[in-house]
Predict the 3D structure of the following.
Amino acid sequence: MTKKIGSYFLSMALLMFSLQACSQGNGPAATKPDNERWQQAIEYKMEIDMDVKTNRFQGVQNVKYTNNSPDALDQVFYHLYFNAFQPGSMMDVRSRTIADPDRRVRDRIFNLKEDEIGYQKIKSLKLNGKPVKYEVVGTVLEVQLDQPIAPGSTVDFDMEFEAQVPVQIRRTGRDNAEGVRYSMAQWFPKMAEYDYQGWHADEYIGREFYGVWGNFDVKIKIDKDYLIGGTGYLQNPLEIGHGYENEGETVNQKVENGKLTWHFVAPNVHDFMWAADPDYTHKKLTTKDGLELHFIHKKGQNEENWNKVMPQTEMLFEYASKHFGKYPYKQFSVIQGGDGGMEYPMSTLITGSRGSLIGVTVHEAMHDWYHGILGSNEALHPWMDEGFASYASTRIMDYINRKTKGESEPEVTLENLGNNSGQRSYVGLSKSGREEPLSTHSDHYNLNGAYSSSAYGKGAAWMSQLGYVIGEKNLDKGLLTYFEDWKFKHPNPNDVLRSFEKVSGLELDWYNEYFVYTTKSIDYGVKEVKGEGNKTNVTLERVGMMPMPMDVVVTYKDGTKEVHYMALRMMRGEKPAETQDKRIVHPDWAWVSPTYDFTIDRPMADIASIEIDPSGRMADVERGNNKWEVNSLKTNK
Ligand SMILES: [Zn+2]
């Protein structure tokens, strides 16, 4: 599957290049880099007027849409996410029929009353000033165009809409469990993404988002007592106040009919969230790097932990920008709202009364890297977002915990290389018999539990285990290369793998072919150890179906350690040594062979133990057979 996609890109890239080259008369075609791919562009201009008594708002939206694809588009699609919160919606039916419903949803949508449901009603829609035909089908607005949008052209869509904010069920809504009035996620009619796979007009059933990058200009008119936080830079702080003014600046609130108009601008994002409450309090922290961090929460609720999370968020951005790519925006906001923790560009909504706020803040902030900035099709490849965010969170939490305790970085040993982020959850799933391939669309897993352990667990394991395959230094380099190569470009599973292939010089196609597209698992064991004079013969065994390279660590009774390394022949190379310990590189293991024999040049009596991957980075589903130990501590001394 990976290979097919690869050659499709290549032929398309060559075709596009030769077309370009012909029209410019540039002579012979060179190969086009595989990180250049066309992408749609969008500019949103929205004005909404909120009525906090009825929880309804009127909206006007202007969208400038640029079709950078090679295709003439005779239809477009918008998401109308609020419509999911109506009895009988696909989200409702799915929640009432899946074997393990989300506890936040269950049958709550089914039981919503008229004034509690959500909706987005389209009052008018025009393309370049002319009315167009459209139909609302559940959470998708289908728009038919008489005049197709030509490749390379920019058009204007003008819409008037009316919305009712649903009672908070999932992610978005009013009056959440902690009393936050408005958690405004998925609140506007949002253009679906069109890419090399065509339209992605997925119904809103449960999870994960994919959108067009662009610039947002949003004006929100709301009761003057409400404080707003969210995606975007506030343009008129002195007309607003509410803690957005800088010290020494004079606020002159511009109140009209009891309302303030908040004007936000957000460049190069694919979504826009805002939250509002009359009892919010607002704190700011500017980091050493000049990043403005905003913390917005209900006054008097869990103040101690909200104060603690501020300097920890600074540590998070410091570590993340160094190890996962430079954060490109000037602002990030941590806001109380929603129903757990949820990521949005330049911001997060988290429930605010939990014991510690930093774990959830770290995870959601890391989504700004993988969901916000890299922006893979998260509905289709949720593991590239949830998994990578989880992996990054493991490292950042280690860093914050060390830094808080004043500890320095531990010395690198064979046992503590990298981490095993996600593996426990993945191994549990693998053994449960309920695993589905990681390539499953996020909405289409049979069970919510299988989705979570796959997207978060196996997705994180994909990354932590890759450190074992290519070496931690290559992994570190690759994480930054991947970010630089693919930021704002929607990478797919092949693209991320290619970034790591390029930095490591190793062939890795087999890694996705097994770990992403199948549920085949990894189990290696030490089968036999036999002394023969001054030498020791060892037989390793591949028990599981997924092949892996081997780090076999021999510990001698004198305490010294030695690494015996066997790459997979299909890797076409070896990872570099990862520690100062002596390493012996054996001939490659051809994956077809279930066993592998090698010799240690010392007598068996010298050996204390032989262990496959003591670092624990390989997602081996049965660790019991990984270690051979001399069981007689007394006899051999
Ligand atoms: Zn997440």
